[in-house]
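Notes continue from the previous slide.

Worked example: a multi-chain complex. Inputs as given:
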Amino acid sequence: MRILKYLLRKEFQQILRDRGMLPIIFVVPVFQLVILTYAADFELKNIKYVIVDRDRSQESERLLARFNSSKNFHNMGERTDFKDGMEALDRNQATLLVRIPNGFSRDLQKEKNATIMLDVNSIDGQAASLSYTYASEIIRKFNDEIAMEWNGLPQKASFPVEVKTRYWFNPEMEYKNLMVPGILAMLVTMVGMFLSSMNVVREKEIGTIEQINVTPVSKIAFLTGKLTPFWILSIFELSFGLVIGKLLFDIPLSGSLGLLYGFTAVYLLVILGLGLLISTMADTQQQAMFLSWFFMVIFILMSGLFTPIENMPVWAQKLTLLNPIAYIVKVIRAVLLKGSTFADIKNDFIVMAGFAVVILSMAVYNYKKRA
Amino acid sequence: MVRYENIGKSYEGYPAVSHISFEVGEGELFGLIGPDGAGKSTLFRILTTVLLPDEGHCFFDGHDVVKDYKYVRRNVGYMPGRFSLYQDLSVIENLEFFATIFQTPIEENYDLIKDVYKQLKPFEDRRAGALSGGMKQKLALSCALIHRPKVLVLDEPTFGVDAVSRKEFWDMLKNLKSKGVTILVSTPYMDEASLCDRVALIQNGQILMVDTPEGIIRRFDKRMYAIQTQRIYQALNALQEMYDWQAYSFGQEIHLYAPETIDPSSLTDRLKAMGIEDVSVSLGEPEIEDCFMDLMVSSNIAENAE
């Protein structure tokens, strides 16, 4: 125990003496939270669109007026024919082309059924699907209105069910409420993983490991001494991030903070274990850096932080079951926004504890005092 | 105290050392002498339990270093070839760190390191990375000694250290020896061999000879002629034309190893006739370096012939 205490003291001395460390601990979280929360906003405003109206009827004008008055859309003007309209898409002057064919109004009146066409620039799939959704919504309302007018009375018969949407757990659809908890998860992960993956390999690089290996200090004590400081630092990062999130973005803290810390504590064992495993495998800090980046990028992109996991193909969804970041993103959001209790996230806890045991065992096994 | 028995170790199929056997007695100051890449570090790393041998056995105070590695780690002081203390910790922090790891208070063994450490005392709060080469050496030695090891293993401790510090360092080793510590030291500098009780000459992973410095000199079976001249290069060329023997320059003179007796004055005349006027030849006393040069080259020739 005395050895462990001293090992810890030594690690802390080294970390705090490292001049690059303080900015990493304090500046990085602020930057990530502020910049990412504001920048990675998914709501689309001012979707640029162009119109080709070959019908020029009262009805087509009314439809277009609806587009014009929407805050989501920004009119980039009219084009005379479809070819010009497509060209506007090609040149990136617009994201959406609304085509109203000749005879739109006539078909609508005679056949009670008319067609229009929407062309969406789908290079950015997410923006495209949002544009489409917004546009459909406008057209649906237009439909309702027309139907009501022509049939003389409110058509409760044909529209018996009215859908009213309320966004539960995030009533205002505040994007930041979703992002801040996710970024907190990312922050804790980054600090834990990068620092721990660099550490043992650094001792290898500067040769101090050779001296340590010849001493009677046990490998468990040595590695515990290595990981504990980063564990504490990462927990501190979480607290720091929560304070910023509360002060700057006023994120809701619905659930128990104790639960949040408890889960993060277990989660960090997994991340630090992974960093340690990388560190024992790599021969240089450069290799360790590349390996951690590799894991970080895959884990983050498949974590549900930016793209909902439900949008992924089934095989990818299965893979996320192995992704620790997916669990923490889910749990942090659940606890902060939804106020989930231990019973709700019990399974995640068990899985995470399992991960921790496996990863740490691998890391300890892989660190050899003898070659 | 230390015994190597037929030790062999290969890296990726290339043998680093093979069939190594020798013994180091208790309280001995034992030198392992050989050029870079000869296998000195490999032998030391096997002894200090950081490397597993492919074949053979190595014993430390009667304990097998593979089976009983824990005993070795408690009782060996190891100073790797590369400075391997924490550069971002201060002198005293490094010392405390190693004392704690071995669970021994610094005061308990301070008498052992006192002579070494007292020179570091004024810089106790300086970071190890900011010390001069010689000071780093002393700190590393102090840290390797703090748990009063039975055997001290020093891998090229004087490599890249200036002549004064080197001498100081060897004085410290003698001092430690007088306190009963068994010392294994490796060095690429042949002149340091004469400072050891016994030396092993190692080359290409094989031991050429193990003996006391005097014994090695006694075994020298040639005559050594010292040739003094300002024109070393021309003289070496001339000697090469005349004889099929080895000749090397040592500072201001050339040493010629002759398997038969020659007349110094007639060699002087012949060299003068070849335009090397300031030359003088005399029969010299071979030193340990001469023996090594001779041994190493003959073994190389023998190996190439195989």
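Summary box: Chain A touches chain B at residues 2-3, 6, 10, 13-14, 17-18, 206-217, 369-371 (CB under 8 Å). The CA atoms of residues 167 and 305 of chain A lie 19 Å apart.
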